[in-house]
Design a protein that fits this description.
The chain has seven helices and seven strands. It has one domain: Rossmann fold. It is an alpha/beta fold. It has a five-stranded parallel beta sheet, sandwiched between helices. Strands 4-6 form a two-stranded antiparallel ribbon. The structure holds iron/sulfur cluster (SF4). Iron/sulfur cluster (SF4) binds next to helix 1 and helix 4.
Length: about 200
């Protein structure tokens, strides 16, 4: 899988769904190689860039985080429709990981009540009462259970060397030694185990 056959410069993106941003911190750990990346491709959307709308015609995207609320759901569907290669970026995207710890507790309202009403010192209020806060989905889902995923980059977070290997593979820079960094079978298997299905 490479997006380097395009006649134009490759257009890549990173997306932040329900995750802690640690995967993006690891992306920033690419340090000076980010300058090399800027020579190889245009970064057209990312939480570290001031772009409001996910654009059309994206060649590859790294998606951090699971799908936990209605905003995540809307964004990942848009991302899938507008992107050639979707990479599940980090364990929350690949399996649900920390984000999915609420799943065994059932209805998300129980979790919200516990955290924001029962444990509140004073004036408890569930934040989803506010119209700007997206409604939680009944269950947190790894990305591949919502849309088709083309590659899985596991790790919590994946380290910068493996992120670079995947980006180089996508951009056709070189054949990475860590081929297993983009092993769909490994990702699917992990997700299955996590969900107990
Ligand atoms: S995989 Fe780890 S570092 Fe990445 S968003 Fe999830 S908890 Fe954070």
């Amino acid at each position: 899988m490479s997006v380097s056959e395009n006649k134009r410069r490759p257009r890549i993106a990173t997306v932040w769904l329900a995750g802690c941003s640690g995967c993006h911190m690891s992306f920033l750990d690419l340090d000076e190689w980010l300058f090399e990346l800027a020579k190889l491709a245009d970064v057209v959307y990312s939480p570290v860039a001031d772009v409001k709308e996910y654009p059309e015609n994206v060649d590859a995207v790294l998606v951090e985080g699971a799908v936990a609320n209605e905003d995540n759901l809307e964004l990942i569907r848009k991302v899938r429709a507008r992107t050639k290669a979707v990479v599940s970026f980090g364990d929350c995207a690949v399996t649900g990981n920390v984000t999915a710890l609420r799943n065994p507790l059932g209805d998300p309202e129980n979790v919200l009540k516990r955290a924001y009403i029962e444990e509140a010192n004073t004036g408890g209020r569930i934040p989803s009462d506010h119209p700007l806060v997206p409604k939680l989905l009944p269950k947190v889902l790894p990305v591949h259970q919502v849309v088709k995923v083309d590659a899985f980059l596991w790790g919590c977070p994946p380290d910068a060397a493996r992120i670079r290997a995947v980006l180089e593979k996508l951009l056709g820079v070189e054949k990475p030694a860590e081929v297993d960094a983009i092993n769909p079978a490994a990702g699917q298997e992990t997700a299955k185990t996590k969900d107990g299905e």
